[in-house]
Each structure stands twice: as C-alpha cells, then as structure tokens.
Amino acid sequence: MSDVARAAGVSVMTVSNVLNERTNVGADTRLRVLEVVEELGYEINLTARRLRSGRTGTIGLIVPQFDLHYYGELASRISEALAPEGMHLVVEQSGASRERELSALSLARLQQYDGVLLSAVGLDMADLDRIHPDVPIVLLGEQAVPERYHRVRMGNVEGARLATEHLVGCGARRVAVLGGKTSAPHPEMATYRTDGWSQALDQAGLPHDPALVIPLTTYSIAEARSAISAAVDGGLEVDAIFAVTDEVAIGALAGLHDAGLRVPEDVQLAGFDNLGISAHLVPGLTTIDPDHPTLVTEALRLLRRQLKDRTADPEHVVSGARLVARGTTRGRSAP
Amino acid sequence: MSDVARAAGVSVMTVSNVLNERTNVGADTRLRVLEVVEELGYEINLTARRLRSGRTGTIGLIVPQFDLHYYGELASRISEALAPEGMHLVVEQSGASRERELSALSLARLQQYDGVLLSAVGLDMADLDRIHPDVPIVLLGEQAVPERYHRVRMGNVEGARLATEHLVGCGARRVAVLGGKTSAPHPEMATYRTDGWSQALDQAGLPHDPALVIPLTTYSIAEARSAISAAVDGGLEVDAIFAVTDEVAIGALAGLHDAGLRVPEDVQLAGFDNLGISAHLVPGLTTIDPDHPTLVTEALRLLRRQLKDRTADPEHVVSGARLVARGTTRGRSAP
DNA sequence: GTGAAAGCGCTAACAA
DNA sequence: TTGTTAGCGCTTTCAC
Predict the structure, then answer these.
(1) Which of A152, A159, A199, A142 is nearest to A175 (CA)?
(2) By the CB < 8 Å criterion, does A320 face chain B?
(3) Domains plus CATH for chain A?
(4) Distance from CA of B204 to the nearest CA of A (A)
(5) What does the UniProt keyword field contain (chains A, B) (predicted)?
(6) Is A103's Cβ below 8 Å from some Cβ in B?
(7) pLDDT (tens digit, 9 = 90+) per residue, B30-50?
(8) Do the chains contact at A222 and B257, CB–CB below 8 Å?
C-alpha cells in the first residue's frame, strides 16, 4: 500500500480511503490512486485489514459433512443469499464428531469470521453452554440448545406427523420409521421426527410396534439401504416407511428394491427435507418441504441483527413444514 | 497473550513458544503457561499469527457450486485427507460464472490460504494466464490450462470411450451423448468426453448423427431431465445414452421414465463420475470411476511440493478411468 | 480533503 | 532457557 501511495504521490491513508470507498477523497486523487493500483497490480492484504479493523466480510458456515446432499444445498442457498450483500461464505466441515466439532468451534477459528452459521449435530447442551464466543452465531439445526443462542430450525414434529398422516391416509396400516430414535440423552432431529411419527399413529389409532423403529447411526444412503434389506429379510412386515431424511429415503428405495418389494404398490415411502434430487427419483419421492428459503432468510436475519447489536435478544425461529406428495405414495384418492 | 504472560510471570515470547510447541521451553514453565491459558480461557488470535508469520494452516478449495454432488464428495474427501496433517480445509463457491470465479480468485482472497485447490470451470486459458498468484495452486479439472500450473484431471477421453464401448458392447447401435459438446473456444469437460464418445463410435463403425449430441448448459439434474424428455418427444430415437456426468445421468433416468421408456430394456444408460449415490439408484447406474482417491492424493501431493518449494516444476497428473457396470446397462452377456 | 502517528496481536531474529 | 526489539500491512484517531 505504501508503494501505491508513493507512486501516486499521496499518503497511505489516502490510498486506504480510496480502497474503502470513503467519501473524503477528491475525485482526481481518487482516479490517480486507482490508476496506480491497477498499474502495480496491487491487492489489499485482507489479513492486515482484519487484524486492525476486526471486519472480515466473511461468514462461516460449519456443517457436519460436505457429502450429505442436504448440506450442499444449504451452503449453496446461503452463499447465493449473501453474495448480493457483498459478503462471502466459506464452509468448513466439522466431521460430525463432538471432538472435531469442538475444534471447529474453537474461538480461535470462529474469530476469523464476522459471523458463524453453525449446523451442529455432535454437540450437546453442555458443550454449547460451555462456549462463550464473542462472534455472532446462529445455530441451524434440530437439537436442543441453550436459550441464549439464536437459532433456526425446521418444524420437525409437525413435518413428521404430516408425512405419517399422509401415508396412513393413503391406506398404510403398518408404518415403520427408518432412522427412528425413541430415546436419546438430548433430543435431536431423529427423536423429534420419531415423535411426529408416533403422534400420527396414535391419532390414527394404530399401534406402534417397537419393531417398526429402525435405528440408523450415520443416516447415509448406504446404511439406510442395508438396514431396510436386513429388516425385510428378517421378517419385518410393513406397508409404508417414513424415512427421517430424504437421503435415508433414497437408501430405502434401493433396499426395498433389493428385497423385491415395489414402491408404492407393496410399500409406500415418504422422506423429509425435499432435496433437489428427490423430485427426480423414479418414482418421485414424497417428502416434507421444510421451507428452505425461509430457513435461510431467517438465519441471515438473525445474524444481521447480531452483527448490528451484539446484545440483541436471542430468537428461536421455526420454519413451517409442507407435504409434497409424489410417486412413492399412492395419493389421497387411493384406498 | 500479554495477559497470559503477566499472569504466568513470563514474557509473551515464552507464551508464544509454548503455544507453538517449540522445544525451547522448560517443562515447568510450559506447564505454568498452559495452566494460565486454561484459567483465563485464552485463545490465540489466528489473524495476528497469520499477518506476522504468513502461515495459516488452512487450504482453500474453490468449487463452482456447492450443490453439485460431485463437489460435495470432493470436498469431503479432501477435508478428510488433510485432517491428519493438522490442516483445515475451507470451501468457497465461485458460482460457475467467469466473473465470480475471478473475484474468488483475486489475489486478496487467495492469500488467506497456505494453498489453493481450484476447480475452475468458468475460467479460460487467458484468464488463468493473467493471474500470477504467489500462493501455491493446484487446478482440479478438465479444461485446458497454461503449462505453468500444477494440475490434476481425470482420464476424460478414455473414460468416455470406455463407457460408450460398453454400451455398444451391450448391443446399442444408436448412442446419444447427453451434455455433449462438439466445439468450444477452449476444450473442457464436455468436449473431452464427447471426443471419447465419438472415438468409440468410430471404432465400432457406427455413424454419429449430429442429432445424437444433446447439449446442456448447467449439467443439472433438472435440465438433463427436461432435455431428454424433449428430445424423445421430438422424435429422437436412441437405444443408449452416454451422460457426461452422473448428475446428468440421474436426470436422464427421470426423463426417460417421463417419456415412457424403460432402462435398460428400451434405452441403456451410462454416466461418468461414480458418485456415491449412483450405486444406490434403481436400477444402479453404470458409470466411469475416475479413481477419486488417486485424484485427491495427487492433488495434495502437488500442493505439498509447492508448499515446500515454490519453484517446483509444474506437473500435470491424469487419473485412470475404470468402468463400473451396473443395472442401467445390460451387461456383456446380453446380445 | 489529506496526512502523521499509533497500534491491532502475534512471531522472526537476535541478545542475554 | 528466556527475554527484547522490531515490524507484518492495514485502519483508527486526530491534527492540519
């Protein structure tokens, strides 16, 4: 920067003012400085700026895994929403383990961002309670969190109920929940969605056999596929499956095929998340749309509020859930 | 850090030495410093460290789009490979447009990383030629690049040829290439893969009707689906499709279903990339495996070489391509 | 409208 | 083994 200042015959402060588009610079001075910047190929050092000013212009998004489609879509949406505001998004992977999540969450790393969107799955209340970051944070996700955090989540129970009601409405009588979890030290995505499933069965007067809860640990396509194959081979009889995520539902589709069962004729299927790919499966996947645009808009609103006022009162926002009926269920007209 | 130093009764330099695990600190001093660090909840300021030392411990990966599954899987693999070395990966989205890619590539942003893995699609030779970063860069991708860049890419032509040969070997006589491109100002993924398709048809003595090249612009599932539907409705007659990516093949699967065609009975299908999901589609997607582990290992090797020696001679590495036959093709035993 | 001085928090280099 | 000095490149503050 001092090279530029020297070549333009001004002080470094003036160069800084020009580059920051401050208004206290004469038009001719401004032009001269910009010319020299171009000529010398000067690029500002963002690290120095950050050290001095504290601003980075960068928002961090921390997700458990890059290769779960849900997080790829989330990152894409957030990135697009930030671009018009001149902010950059960078994404880090925490690896879904408590240990790696805690390390990604170390204040040292968080401080590199103006704000952080944290999609935590491995952290529990106690972990989150211990952390006192001075960077604005918005939690994205389903697990229980301390009150003081700003947070956006989906309508999990409601969505799961909608999906299960739809399956029952389409004639299902034995509805399994793939990826279900009836108890956990702290509530999380799977327990909430299992609750919704459970509520819908209760309302319909259907019993819920514990065998209908098929647990998963990674919620990957491969794991879901083999879990379903194994369950059917093991004698499980179902006429519908509520998969706790679309990713899991994709695995179920394959696993049911492996077991020689047709979807939706023999077994109906519904997922949760409405991934981009879900509309393009064959048959199309019936699923719950958690209103991604609102999720993203609200998360960024909460972040901006904190950016403006560090002491803003925490908000917990819940997005709506909407059923999207496609080919894996037989539709309300069916018996 | 000076607070810690004061509380521990040492100099800031000693605190720095302890935190950097340098060996020139007495065991008792070390312990005392660590105690105080813990007690005060001190966390190092990475920005200041970076400004002074130039090291960041962070590698940047720049991809066109977060929500193409290929990039999610790539990011995940790289992240896992870097973790054991104590390096962090952060991912940025360039948005697939030249403009946004150039901005992501601004020296200012690149300098924030120790090294950069750049998966560029919007940049051409001229753009890349203009950029003279002083950060080690490895290009990941298929487009032509100036010699001075280190670069890893797939065996595109070979892979496309293998896929097309397999389709022909399974009895196909009219093989379309979905996402094909026969000419472009600069060669890129689609042109290379179209070349491979073309070579295989030549070798088999099959004509290549220009109508068999179905162009795409975004290579998204939705675009591929409607392109195939439209082509079939428009009278296109084919008995096989080579899709230039698995993502495109997934769209083709849906589009063929829309058109009332069965896979593989009426139309066989092969993709390219061997995504994680491809094995779990119904039917399983025949595809080309570009040897992801080697791709990642080699990219990181090239990056480490540059990290050690900025003047290391550039290398261009090409990974092998291997056919993975699944249910969307009829297998070699078929007529 | 422009510039000089100070310092963000750390580490390289060297001194003790 | 520990400490001192200087300075990374920028922006804040304040004087002109």
Answers:
(1) A199
(2) no
(3) 2-44 (1.10.260.40), 57-154+291-320 (3.40.50.2300), 156-290 (3.40.50.2300)
(4) 32
(5) DNA-binding, Transcription, Transcription regulation
(6) no
(7) 999 999 999 999 999 999 999
(8) no
